[in-house]
Amino acid sequence: MAEVIRSIMRYFPLGVAIITTNWKGEFVGMTVNTFNSLSLNPPLVSFFADRMKGNDIPYRESEYFVVNFIDNEKILDTFANKPVKERFKMVKFREGLGKSPILLDDYAYIEAKLYKVIDVGDHAIIIGEVIDGEKIRNNFEPLIYVNRSYYKIHYSP
Ligand SMILES: Cc1cc2nc3c(=O)[nH]c(=O)nc-3n(C[C@H](O)[C@H](O)[C@H](O)COP(=O)(O)O)c2cc1C
C-alpha cells in the first residue's frame, strides 16, 4: 500500500518550506512539504519528520524551530539534497529568539517553541507553539511541489 500512497501523492500539489533549528549549537535544516498550521488557540504549527532517516532527531531534541517561507528553488533544493553539513555554508541567515537560523531570503518566517512530538508509524508529528513571526516582503511567488518539480504560483494579491 506504500506504493499506492507514493504514486498518488506524487501528483498532489503541496506547499514547501524549510524548517531549521539550532541543535546543540549546530545549525540544521530541511525542506518539507508537510508543514501546516494546526491550531489558532493555542497558536500551533506542525510538520512531519521521517524517523527512518532520523529527520525527527534535531527537532525533538531542540527547544525551538523556525519555519522559513521561501520562493527560492535553489535554496529549497539545497535543503533537500545537499549534504547536511554544507547547507548553511550556502545561505545567509540570522538567529531568531531561540537561536534557530532565519534565512535572509525568506519572504516570511514563523518561530515556534516545541510543544509536542507524536510518533506515528515511520514519521513523527512535530508540533510547535508560535512565539514570533513576520511577513518580510510582499513581492514573492509561492512555490508548490508536484511530480518532483517546483512550480511558481502567479497571482495578484
Ligand atoms: C519537496 C520535498 C519535501 C520534503 N518533505 C519532507 C518532510 O515533510 N519530512 C521529512 O522528514 N523529509 C522531507 N523531505 C526530505 C528531507 O528534505 C531530507 O530527507 C532532509 O533534508 C535530510 O536530507 P538527507 O535525507 O539527504 O539526509 C522532503 C524533500 C523534498 C524534496
From TrEMBL:
Cited SMART domains: Flavin_Reduct
Gene Ontology molecular function terms on file: FMN binding; riboflavin reductase (NADPH) activity
Cross-referenced InterPro entries: Flavin_Rdtase-like_dom, NADH-dep_flavin_reductase, Split_barrel_FMN-bd
Residue ranges constituting the Flavin reductase like domain according to the UniProt record: 9-152
Pfam families: Flavin_Reduct
Keywords: Oxidoreductase
Names of required cofactors: FMN
Designated name of the protein: Flavin reductase family protein
Lineage, broadest ranks: Archaea, Thermoproteota, Thermoprotei, Sulfolobales, Sulfolobaceae
